[in-house]
Amino acid sequence: MKKSKLLALFTVAAAMSFNAFAGDRVGDFTLIDNNGKAHQLSKYAFNKAVVIVSQQAGCTNNRENIARYKQLRTNWDHRGVSFLMLNSSPDYGRDGIRAEEAVWNYDFPIMDDETQLVADALGVTKAGQVIVVDPVRMQVIYRGPMPVQPARAPLGEVLEAIVADGADSRSMDVVNVDFEVAEGCEMTFPAKERYMAEAPDYETEIAPILIERCVGCHVEGGIGPFAMNSHMMIQGWSPMIREVIMTGRMPPMQVDPTVRHWTNSGNIPVEERQKLIHWINAGSPRN
Questions:
Q1: Is the domain of 121 the same as that of 213?
Q2: Does residue 46 have a pLDDT over 70?
Q3: Element (H or E) spanning 215, and its range?
Q4: Percentage of the chain surpassing pLDDT 70?
Q5: Are residues 123 and 168 in the same domain?
Q6: 142 with 132: CB under 8 angstroms?
Q7: Which of 44, 54, 48 is nearest to 108 (CA)?
Q8: For 199, which of 148, 204, 222, 282 could close a Cys bridge (C-beta 3.0–4.6 Å)?
Q9: Residue 264: how many CB atoms within 10 A of its CB?
């Protein structure tokens, strides 16, 4: 980005009271939306940015901003920006997401983040937050509210800078704009809080999951590219394990459980995925 434009961006945003940090990197992920379509972040790399709106049933912020969301999409989707919603409500379910959409007609793909792992990776803390992600560098570049006049607020300035400067804009820091939680928009992350307080135990909680879900292929001479035969080996491969779980690439034969049940499905239950990812995020500890 040209220095003059970058300076102008931060001058405008500073006047509206925000904090800027070094770019937050996020890993790739795949989620299924309310219509059964899968969305993988890395496959949006043909875009300059992806705008993700955190959504939750009963959130007044979401409902009051529906027209603004649609106007924002109209203004930017022809300029290389894609738009998605993210529902991370625990135990809400695909049927609940569809019911909310049927009543309020958001007219956005609403991704089902049943584990809350994607919301955690994106830094979502409340429904109604708008997240802008560079899908090439996997970097968050805006996190804040949906403003009344987007073109004159940090969100519009960030999108304009991305579209105008292309690859040069990827040196931008993430812009965090704080705002109050509206009615029904509070979010809790029980699994994250539990495992931040005490990481899952490798021997009694993590190893049994790997034995049940992975070791059938990941053994010496097996079809898996490495053997899960020690903690050191698993710890070394932890970043890759996290990526293939978050994108649904592993275990093989994963099917959408809301469509049909398969006895040989490779789906990992929600609680097990939460344990594995939070354990890896904690540094894959031995004890």
A1: no
A2: yes
A3: none
A4: 89
A5: yes
A6: yes
A7: 54
A8: 282
A9: 7
